[in-house]
Specification:
The structure holds two protein chains of two kinds. In chain A, the strands form two sheets. A five-stranded parallel sheet of chain A has the order 1-2-3-7-6, with helices on both faces. Chain A has a two-stranded antiparallel sheet with strand order 4-5. Chain A contains twelve helices and seven strands. By secondary structure, chain A is α/β, with parallel strands linked by helices. Chain B is of the alpha/beta class. In chain B, helix 1 runs parallel beside helix 8. In chain B, the strands form three sheets. In chain B, strands 3-2-4-5-7-6-12 form a seven-stranded mixed sheet, with helices on both faces. In chain B, 55% of the residues are buried. In chain B, 40% of the residues lie in helices and 21% in strands. In chain B, helix 8 links the parallel strand 6 and strand 7. The chains are: A alpha/beta, B alpha/beta.
Chain lengths: 322, 324
């Protein structure tokens, strides 16, 4: 991996963090926003390993995936705030953002909904060689992001089983963030990891440290290559932690403070920053420059979103039917 | 005109649309096993068996549709739809809107229902109104053999998700179907019998019952008009209103239960838009608010019957001249 990409992964993680914290601070203006603060390495490491022809399905914690894919922060914030300049013209809010132009398709906020849709997207990709369809490009794969909560839905098994039996190019990316809404993961699952469930379906299944962006990137590159070259699915689990609440605002009174502190000590952004500083690949002055650029970008995005008009009331009934 | 069964009409529609459009594919429980003619002609990519898992069948269809394919999925029996509700209602029905129109979901869901095979409430449940209530979906429920073909072809060509309900008991019933291309637009009711005195609104095989009731009424000098809705969403309001403004009397007949059903919707529309034309109260003759029984005797008791419809029509007509 070249130096610019290591630094650029750090900068994208910083952007995601600042973006989500800005929205969280504005909880009154974007209520119900679900952040993935603490999980930035998972989003950046995987999305950077994908290609433009790949398609992404995500869930209610989608800002990291979208920003890592190159989403415009202003349009994304406008969407979360219900404004006309958002990617879905304000109709999605934070919970179902898709951006066709970025290949981020079909975000479902029903936990597991993205798992239900992913095999069909991959089927269209697989059939694209003989059946022209507008939504896919030759050689593309489908990456679907979900959490340990979704793995407790029955559709998790239905989805993987279909992708295995139909030999579909799906990269299953499980962000195991230890929380299922307000319930601890260890209350709902017999295993520490989701991987054993996936592996029982007979596909390659790997778990890696989801807070180490370089480890995630390397694992995701290998996983995507497997899916692309074989046309068959792969399960990649990223062990991480949701350090903010289920949604904004959430006082996290239900969270063990020592556990939270332990995970914050393994913050993915600090990990990558300190690694680059220690290696001499990033000078303190450059870091300050990155921090300023991120702050400026988020401030500009927030101003853009605030100044974006509300959708016209007539939009209420558009887009229901084609 | 050819005389073919409903099953053959559905098979013809599928084959013709798959020939016409490479993007059309079909999958579901036993689809490749049972539609061997389609498998032979179109191959294993476009005609597929699936695991017995309705959630992922419908989800895969929605995902494929969003990318530009046109899946037709067979979920066998209508109660099984409850296992696929997330994909149909939350994804296919809503994500066009929630994405600001970025994606479309051109897919068709086939499901069978209706009394007559004594299969009981977990195979027979006329739950079409649940889907009428869901935004973004269309709902089709044909009566005539020709409509099974013509409406299915329109459903496959439609850019929206369409629920296509088939009565399980009519599959082997032969009927006339025009030769060659036969397409029936969605959203247009049929009037299989015109009349002046009372409007009988129905759909699916209850239309047959209404036509039998109309024959009985004709012997009593009552001229009933029978409307076959064909599509429950979008609903052809103008055909209903035009008829009620002419007859002044309305009976809605369906196998589904009454609460919040299609009959309630039709009655409400007429109450809102043609109240002044009504000469008598609106009546609904429906299946009971109970699970479908398996016993043949009980199943028949649950069905709207021609005698009951005719009796209700006579009461409505009589109510005008003989004050209670």
């Amino acid at each position: 991996m070249s130096q610019p990409s290591r630094i650029s992964m750090l900068e994208t993680m910083m952007l995601i963090r600042a973006h989500e914290e800005r929205l969280a601070a504005n909880a009154g203006g974007s209520p119900g926003t679900c952040t993935a603060v603490g999980q930035e390495a998972a989003a950046v490491g995987v999305v950077r390993a994908l290609q433009p022809r790949d398609r992404i399905l995500t869930n209610h914690r989608s800002a990291g995936h979208l920003l890592a894919r190159g989403a415009d922060p202003g349009r994304l914030m406008a969407e979360v705030m219900g404004r006309a300049d958002g990617y879905c013209r304000g109709k999605s809010g934070s919970l179902h953002v898709s951006a066709k132009e970025l290949g981020v398709v079909l975000t479902s906020t029903i936990v597991g909904g993205e798992l239900s849709l992913a095999p069909g997207v991959a089927l269209a990709q697989k059939m694209g060689a003989t059946v022209p369809n507008e939504g896919t490009e030759p050689g593309g794969i489908t990456a679907v992001f979900f959490g340990d909560g979704a793995a407790c839905e029955g559709i998790f098994h239905e989805s993987i089983n279909l992708a295995v039996t139909w030999q579909l190019p799906v990269l299953y990316v499980c962000e195991n963030n230890q929380w299922q809404a307000f319930v601890r993961r260890d209350e709902t699952m017999p295993h520490e990891q989701v991987r054993p469930w996936a592996a029982s379906h007979g596909l390659p299944a790997v778990s890696v440290d989801g807070n180490d962006v370089e480890a995630v990137f390397a694992a995701a590159l290998a996983a995507a290559e497997h899916v692309r070259s074989t046309g068959t699915p792969y399960f990649l689990e990223l062990i991480t932690y949701r350090t903010r609440g289920h949604y904004e605002p959430d006082d996290q009174a239900y969270v063990d403070k020592e556990e939270l502190a332990r995970w914050k000590a393994r913050d993915p952004i600090a990990l990558q920053r300190d690694r680059l500083l220690a290696a001499g690949e990033l000078a303190p002055g450059e870091l300050a420059h990155l921090q300023q650029r991120v702050a400026d970008s988020v401030a500009a995005a927030f101003a853009f979103a605030q100044n974006s008009p509300w959708p016209d009331a007539r939009e209420l009934l558009t887009d229901v039917y084609a | 005109m050819q005389t073919i069964t409903v099953n053959d009409a559905v098979g013809q529609a599928l084959a013709e649309e798959m020939r016409r459009d490479l993007r059309v594919l079909t999958f579901g429980e036993g689809v490749a096993t049972n539609r061997r003619d389609l498998l032979a002609e179109f191959g294993t990519q476009r005609v597929r068996n699936t695991p017995l898992a309705e959630g992922i069948i419908a989800g895969a269809a929605a995902g494929a549709a969003a990318m530009g394919l046109r899946p037709v999925i067979d979920l066998l029996f209508a109660p099984f739809l409850t296992l696929s509700m997330d994909a149909i209602m939350n994804s296919a029905g809503k994500l066009r809107y929630l994405s600001g129109g970025q994606f479309e979901f051109p897919m068709v869901v086939l499901a069978r229902t209706g009394a007559g095979w004594t299969v009981g409430g977990q195979h027979n449940h006329n739950l079409e109104a649940m889907f009428v209530h869901a935004p973004g979906l269309k709902v089709v429920m044909p009566h005539s053999t020709a409509d099974y073909k013509g409406l299915l072809k329109s459903a496959i060509r439609d850019p929206n998700p369409v629920l296509f309900f088939m009565d399980m008991t009519v599959g082997h019933t032969p009927g006339p179907v025009p030769e060659g291309e036969h397409v029936v637009p969605l959203g247009q009711a049929a009037v299989p019998r015109a009349g002046r005195d009372v409007t009988l609104v129905s759909y699916s095989k209850s239309v047959t019952t209404c036509l039998a009731a109309a024959d009985q009424l004709a012997q009593r000098g009552i001229d009933a008009e029978v409307i076959d809705l064909r599509t429950l969403k979008p609903l052809d309001e103008s055909t209903i209103l035009r008829s009620v403004r002419k007859t002044g009397r309305l009976i809605v007949v369906h196998e589904a239960a009454a609460p919040c059903g299609v009959g309630a919707e039709v009655a409400a529309i007429v109450g809102e838009k043609a109240f002044a034309a009504l000469k008598s109260p609106i009546r609904r003759i429906t299946g009971p608010d109970a699970p479908a029984p398996s016993s043949w005797m009980l199943e028949q008791a649950a069905l709207p019957q021609a005698d009951g419809i005719a009796r209700a029509a006579l009461e409505l007509v009589g109510a005008e001249t003989v004050p209670a």
